[in-house]
Amino acid sequence: MGGKTDVWQGTLALMVLKTLQMMGPQHGYGLARRIEQTSGDLLELNYGTLYPALLKLEQEGYIRSRWGSSENNRKAKFYELTKAGERQVRKAAAEWEQTTEILSRFLEPNAEA
Amino acid sequence: MDALRAKLRSLWLRVWGTRQIDNDFDAELASHIALHTEDGMRAGLSRQEARRQAFIRLGGAEQVRQAYRERRTLPWIEELLQDVCFGLRMMARNVGFTAVAVITLAIGIGATATAFTWIDAVLLQPLSGVKEPNRLATVESVTSNGEWVPNSYPDFIDFRDRLKLFDGVAVSHMAAFSVGKENHAERVWGELVSGNFFAVLGVKPEAGRMFLPSEYGDVPGAYPVAVISDRYWRSHYGADPSIIGSTIRINQHELTIVGVAAPEFHGSIPVTSFDLWVPYMEQPVLNGVQLWMLRDRHDRNMLGIARLKSGVTFDQARLELKTLADRMAIANANVSEGMSATLLPLWKSPHGPQGLLVGPLRVLMGVCVLVLLIVCANVANLLLARATVREKEFSARLALGATRGRIARQVLTESLMLTGCGALLGLAATPWMSHALRLLMPPSPMASLVSMNTRPNFAVLAFVAGICIVTALFAGLVPALQVGRLNLSAKLNAGGRSGTAGRARNRLRSTLVASEVALALVALVGAGLFARSFQQTLRIDPGFDPNHVLLSQFYLSTNGYNLAQRKEFCRRLEERMLAAPGIVDVAYSDGVPLGFEPSWWEELKIEGYAPRPNENMNIFRNVVSPGYLPLMRIPIIDGRNFTDQDNENAPNVMIVNEAFVRRFFAGRSPIGKKIHGWGSWFRVIGIAKDSKYHYLGESTPAYFYVPFRQVFREDMNLAFYVRTQGDPENALASLRVQTRAIDPNVTVVDAAPLKEFIGASLYPQKIAASLMTVLGGLALLLAAVGLYSVMAYSVAQRTQEIGVRIALGAQLGHVLRMIVMQGLALTLAGLAIGGVLVIGLARAVASIEFTNSGMGLNARLLGDGANSPLIYLGSAVFLCIVGALAAYLPARRAARVDPMQALRAE
After folding, report:
1. What's the pLDDT tens digit per position in B675-721?
2. Given Cys at both, which of B117, B207, B229, B302 links B275, Cβ 3.0 to 4.6 Å?
3. In the predicted model, what is the mean pLDDT of residues B618-622?
4. Which residue has the higher pLDDT, B356 or B603?
5. Helix (H/G/I), strand (E/B), else coil: A68
6. In the predicted model, what is the mean pLDDT of residues B765-770?
7. Does the distance separating the beta carbons of B59 and A59 come in below 8 Å?
8. Residue B436: which H helix or E strand, with range?
């Protein structure tokens, strides 16, 4: 796979939730950078799409936000996981693992045969 | 669970989302850019370049803001709210326009909703208060030539006991009961039913119980029980639950009230309300019917209703019924040869009022659709005219960046709001409009029984909501499409001028006007045809003279009279009435000609006539006193009339009609020939002139008369006729006096002039004609208003043009003629389309026969009236006049305007 990959529809939410679970509260820019890093810089986020996605998660009650200060004392909005968000990460992660496992069975060159 | 809650929470927040956090997001975006820029500078970029990169990666601040806003709330709800608010302002500002549109829509939607309420009550949900009505069906016997007739009790027993695909078969027989002590007895209509009646229909008791399985049997006189209606319970017992188990005196016999039926249940005949249900096996006790009649397969007077087992299809059930009936016809060949049976949907049952209503209702629905279409065209025209006025508003919005779709949606929202207001108004008017059906019912003992559930129910509401949306789309679509065609620069460049409408717009409006003319022609011709056909029927000679005759029906069995006592009563009443002043003739019979109630027949064997295979030998008949034919002024054209000597002890005699002679004797004289019926031989003694028996429009069937004293039986009716010199109503008083003198317990009820009574036979045509006339008039009015307003509007738009023409020296008359001609051309185009349409429709409607029972063959809603060129021509000319006037009046007004003024208005 050459070059950088766009984020697939629907997976961004899981990446956001998982990153928040691992790293604790993050501001939007930090979150975006972290996701790119975690992907080994294979992903290139369109930062503009991140904010509506965060808003959606907040509306659904999986994350909450508050204003705070960044490491170099800049005012920034921090997002953190809620209880419902914790449950959602586990559930979505399990679903995703199952999906990839099923798909990999199809893609493995010498499965069963 | 979590996921659903999350979705709902999000939806809630978006609908009621706060709208003031734009600043908050701006701050977040600013912080994002700042953080990104710092990162970039740390990587060695200049501040400016870092900032540029940050914006690039973000994908444009304004786009992100927009995406964020759209996610924060539900944009379409916001826009809808804006549209609605704006629409309300527009409506409030143009009160005249709004009022006209809303009232027009209310009329159209109200009329359609009323028609649908009727159709719903009569055809879609014919029975209320029953369980799973979709599994119920009517069981009809079929004669060898395919006519539908009721069932006999022995046939019912076979159906009940042998059919496997049914959860039950029940029968009912409508009857009048006399309830209470002799001298203040009250007439109550009810049904004599098989014991399993309520179980098959699935009717729940309001109090007490329904009939028990132990009461389902076939033992005559063994079940002295009764169920009353909720209505009767409330009106006569004050809804007192303790009356369960008490006795009720019916036809001078004591029955025990075991229960009260659920309030929604009114009996097994649609559109009819009964108050009393008694097991049919009480018939011998209550009405003195002989036991052998209960076992007689010829005695076909039971309406059958069956419940299909769940999962069984209609066709499977019908096949099983037919197979069984065909086997029965072979097993009982002596009485049932060639008979069969079939299953019909409830609404198709030819008995009871709905049998008469089906045809007219179909026509009615068609007319309502017509009215609704005209209304749509009217409102579309109005909206179109409004859209022209608002073109500049729309252009301005387009120029400011609104999409065409957004404006089209705005137009549709407004049209939906107008339609919604119209629908609400129309719906409010529906309940009392529905009651009008009752006014159209014929005067007859049954008129008081007619009841209909006219409360708007879910089906009606859903229907109205449906037509509301369809109307809004119809009316709003054309103006909305116009927005798509707006030529932005041309409009804005037109500056202050309200230029005349473009060519495309004119063509569109012309199409609407032409279609309106076409629809109006259909309505007008339709009304004309129905009214004319009704007139023609009225002019048909019934073959007897119904004027100056008072008709009264007696229910002597309800007084506990046996057969001999009934005959004696008739003889004495005849004697006394003949002696009364002002009375010309007196007679009595079983059936009344052209009545609302069914006519009966007898299966005949005719000496010297070999029936074709499967020929239906069930011939309609009447059982009459010797005075009947003279009183009716039906001439005896050969032989003699009955006399008092043709009594029980004399040989049986019969009089046949001319159609009978033509059919069975090939026109040769039948006098002296022998005919077999009712188990004995009759000798033909006379021929009566043909008359009408069931419907005025019928083709005369073979018919015969037998003497009252020889044939009258316990289960027959008794109609008493008095011919007077003057107003027949005057004879009523003396009829009451003489009746009381014979027996004070017998009351004269349901007395009416025969002339009014036979109006019942005209009912289907009368209802079709009156509805068509009313709705046709309405359609015409709406079309005329529409035509006028559109013409007036387009002429008003041409005021400048007219001014210019006149200023340039055109003659006033010339200009007027030009405009009127253009209006006429449009009208003629509409007439051409409408003509094609109406000729096709009239053909289709003319083929609707309004009854399919054995009576009234070939009786049609539209007689020969369907091909009457005068009506087509008259309607066309009338519409031309309307069209010309609609063009002339506004044109004259426009031409009166001072040319200078018109030019200055530029």
Report:
1. 998 888 999 999 999 998 877 777 788 999 999 989 888 777 788 99
2. B229
3. 87
4. B603
5. strand
6. 69
7. no
8. helix B436-439
State how far the alpha carbon of B561 is from the alpha carbons of B287, B291, B299, B566, B568, in Å: 8, 16, 21, 6, 10
Under an 8 A CB cutoff, do B60 and A46 touch?
no
3-state secondary structure B638-649: EECCCCCCCCCC
The one-letter amino acid code at B151 reads N
Could you tell me where the DSSP H helices lie in A1-113?
11-23, 28-38, 47-59, 83-107
Give contacts of B10 with chain A, Cβ < 8 Å. Answer: 56, 59-61
Chain B residues whose CB is inside 8 A of the A62 CB are: 6
Tokens matching residue A55: 């808003």
What CA–CA distances, in Å, run from B544 to B212, B217, B230, B629, B654?
50, 46, 43, 9, 19
Q: Is B106 helix (H, G, I), strand (E, B) or coil?
A: helix
H-only helix segments in B202-290? 230-237, 283-287
As beta bridge partners, residue B601 has B620
Token representation of residue B116: 């649908």
Residues B6-23: what's their mean pLDDT? 69
Highest mean pLDDT among A72-76, B485-489, B592-596, B850-854: A72-76
Residue among A46, A62, A88 minimizing CB distance to B59: A46
Write down the pLDDT at residue B789.
77
Say if CB B341 and CB B494 are below 8 A apart.
no
Question: To 10 degrees, what angle do helices B61-72 and B47-58 make?
Answer: 40
Alpha-carbon span B864 to B260, nearest angstrom: 50
Residues 6+ apart with CB under 8 A from B393: none
pLDDT surpassing 50 at residue B854: no
β-partners of residue B205 are B261
* Token pair belonging to B14: 């978006």
B182 has a pLDDT exceeding 70: no
CA dihedral in degrees (B191, B195, B197, B202; nearest 10)? 130
pLDDT per position as a tens digit, B496-517: 444 444 566 667 778 877 888 8
**Residues B835, B801: Cα–Cα separation, whole Å:** 34
Is the predicted ipTM greater than 0.90, yes or no? no
Q: Find the closest chain A residue to B18 by CA distance.
A: A59
Determine whether the interchain pair A47/B71 forms a contact, defined as Cβ–Cβ distance below 8 Å. no
Distance CA B363, CA B849 (A): 12
CA distance B513 to B787: 6
**Residue B806: per-residue pLDDT:** 80
